[in-house]
Amino acid sequence: MNIEWVVIRGSGLVAFGLVAASTIWGLMVSTRLFGRAIKAKPLTWFHESLGLGALIATGVHMVALTMDQYLELGWIDVLVPGFAAWEPTAVALGVTSFYGLAIVTLSSYAKGLIGQKAWRTIHFLAFGTFAGALIHGILAGTDTTNPIVTGMYVGSGVLVVGLLILRIVQQRATNTAPPRARTAATADRATNPSAPASVGSG
Q1: What is the mean pLDDT of each run of 10 residues along the chain (202 residues)?
Q2: How large is the greatest C-alpha to C-alpha distance in the chain, in angstroms?
Q3: Can you list the pairs that 113-118 forms with residues at least 24 positions away whose Cβ atoms lie under 8 Å?
Q4: Rounded to two decimals, what is the model's pTM?
Q5: Which of 1, 29, 75, 116 has most Cβ atoms within 10 angstroms of its Cβ?
Q6: Other C-beta atoms within 10 Å of 30: how many?
């Protein structure tokens, strides 16, 4: 086992862990599970930091892949979906997830330019990014059968689905609430811009 392979495996697991944590954290913020115990700004800052960390770890993962002599993956293989001869479907999902992660993460730093509505719409990509990274890890990861890794995949998947269902239920309840309650919810979002008005996580 060479050093490149160790870095590939380690950075891949770290990247997925951070993607999962960012998605789960965003959903926890949008469902207001923290209540008002913690101010919105620190919650948002931590969420953005998780996404940035995932982006960096994914970059390390991709660079290490191009350096491994066994896989023989070039830059076009790790940057363009469908070009890799090794595990083409899994690699394509990984590449696509990388671009989704980059768009979602960097959009937070361009919110002032693109506007709140566009930022929220872009953040729907977070769910596709998580799903793509999850399937990529299961199909391409050599540690998938490791109980700890399997637990991470299953646990994060269950949490994301559960929190997403909760968010949908909350949104439907808000939409069917009396006008006065909807007005209060709108005012709450105005003071807590990190809480999405729609299903998408931040």
Answers
A1: 86 96 90 72 86 96 92 93 93 96 92 89 92 96 92 97 92 76 49 41 38
A2: 64
A3: 116/193
A4: 0.83
A5: 29
A6: 28
